[in-house]
């Protein structure tokens, strides 16, 4: 576990003594706790020292992604999305009582560093209007998710273009890459709508919120707008993935059609020869007795099959079939 505390000016490691002092202090503080797992034994004592319900916080971590977002008379609590380390968004649990913000997470170290950098650029905001910090932090966390979604959208778009422009056989690597994109995106896409609903329903009547002043409420409303914009990104990426799947299926169908055309060419070329072989292979007396000379062999055994192949190939070429003696360069890729 690693815990850090922000006093409005700088960050430092948060010990039990500092957590106890922060609980009694009326000035602004933000304590971020990154645990090694839901069962990390170091987390409950620190949370209790901060005056946070440790059992409830740990339960949220064990439950996995949820849609909890609640504003009560004395605090704002719930979950927030941020970019994870496994190319998919993760959740952090938070609580804010007007002066002290506590976040608890199991992942998202890189995203947390980005949030720290953004907060450093607006340190005066946290000092002059402390209630704005919760909304600002939620926005900064969600922006890391938007950046991750943007990267995913670019990846899917490039993959779709590669599939559309490919002329050879379907690539197993492209199919695997599409599967990985879907696996990274699908869990978040399935859970985010319910989370957005919880955020919107909580902020539907801002005048009823007594835990924050107007400045803090305005930051949360900005966060809600950002959350709705994120939903639009989710829907666009979902459409892009579906289109890419369809293009991949079309590529496979086109490749299969080409193989069927090649089989048709081979069949048309060699079916007449098969007929000639069967015909002249019959043991009738007139065939056995009359076709014994070398000219007959050259005409019927060599010239006639070759002529049939030439005529068949010409007929196929006139009807648009591509005839090739070898595999094309694109097919050998």
Description:
The protein has 333 residues and is an alpha+beta fold. It is built from ten helices and seven strands. It has two domains: 249 residues, Beta Polymerase, domain 2, CATH 3.30.460; 64 residues, no CATH class. A seven-stranded mixed beta sheet has the order 2-1-3-7-6-5-4, with helices on both faces. β5 and β6 form a beta hairpin. The longest helix is centred in the C-terminal third of the chain and has 67 residues. It is rod-shaped, with a radius of gyration of 35 Å.
Given helix and strand content, the structural type is alpha+beta
CATH topology of the largest domain, by name, is Beta Polymerase, domain 2
DSSP summary, beta strand count:
7
What is the name of the CATH architecture of the largest domain?
Answer: 2-Layer Sandwich
The largest beta-sheet arranges its strands as 2-1-3-7-6-5-4
CATH level 1 name of the largest domain? Alpha Beta
The whole-number mean of residue pLDDT values reads 85
Backbone CA Rg:
35 Å
- Number of domain units: 2
Tally the helices: what do you get? 10
Roughly how much helix do the residues carry, as a percent range?
A: 55-70%
Strand content: 5-15%
**Strand-and-helix sequence, N→C?**
EEHEHHEEEEHHHHHHH
Q: List unreliable stretches of 5+ residues.
A: 325-333
> CATH superfamily name of the largest domain?
CorA soluble domain-like
